[in-house]
Amino acid sequence: MKYYIVDAFTSEPFGGNTAGVALLDGDFPSDRLMQQVAAELRYSETAFVQQQGSLEFMVRYFTPAGEVDLCGHATIATFGLLLKEGIVADGAMCLNHTLAGDLQVRVGDPVMMQMAQPAVIDRPVDIDRLHVIMSGASAQPWPELPVEIVSTGLPDIIMPVASVEALNSLRPDMEALSAYSTELDVVGVHACALTDDGYTAHVRNFGPRYGVPEESATGTANAALTHYLQRRALIGLGSQCRFLQGEAMHRPSVVATTLDDEGCIWVGGRCSIVAEGTLLV
Fold first, then answer.
1. Per-residue pLDDT tens for 42-61?
2. Is the pLDDT of residue 141 over 80?
3. Active site positions, annotated
4. What are phi and psi of 191, to 5 degrees?
5. Would you tell me how many other CB atoms lie within 10 Å of the CB of residue 186?
6. CA triplet 273, 217, 157: central angle to 5 degrees?
7. Residue-wise DSSP of 44-76
């Protein structure tokens, strides 16, 4: 099995968010084997890619702890790799079959992927409990914006905070956050601080339920945040957003999103291949 290590949402090696990408010659291996490979590679997600036509692919995504329906940064890594390896051409529009549905991916520099239809999940969030879980010993102020569960393929709690300083001081209780994420059936928390410094927001993403304490770039969660901002009339149709993520991990990532004139959300970024090899399984 041929595999690659790809940094997504960056043009520089050792930045952005790293994903494993395994290119399959035929059928998908067993779920158990894919889970073992993801655990062995130890990245937040590993994508397993089956080509089904010249511009048609099926991709399955595994974290070290289990399979997820969709992963934004692993998708950017996958299709950036397919471009760099000459499997698809620059400018091609590909079809990506995922467990979250069929999505379009525009291959180029950057790679842009269409997200699943956004949905607000109607589950009440205990704000006081979440505040204690996320703030640790030092409670931080939150702005007068609601906490909400939003999905563009994966559900996340969108949690605005008052400032970049408050964002950087978050110290989640990972065990408690994992338990609460399981109760709400969400991936985790996507915390954000709106800014006017050239970025739409600075963000941090926490998903210990799936073995990912913090992630340096998350396409699906930033797409969910884009929908959240639209619902509050903070952005409109045709808007382009830039989210800065990974600062606290010293792996800065820039995640671009576009809300097109038809209301579809696209997420994109650049990627850099840092390693490749063969798994002898």
1. 998 999 999 999 999 999 99
2. no
3. 45
4. -90, 145
5. 22
6. 155
7. S-EEEEEEEETTEEEEEEE-SS-EES--HHHHH
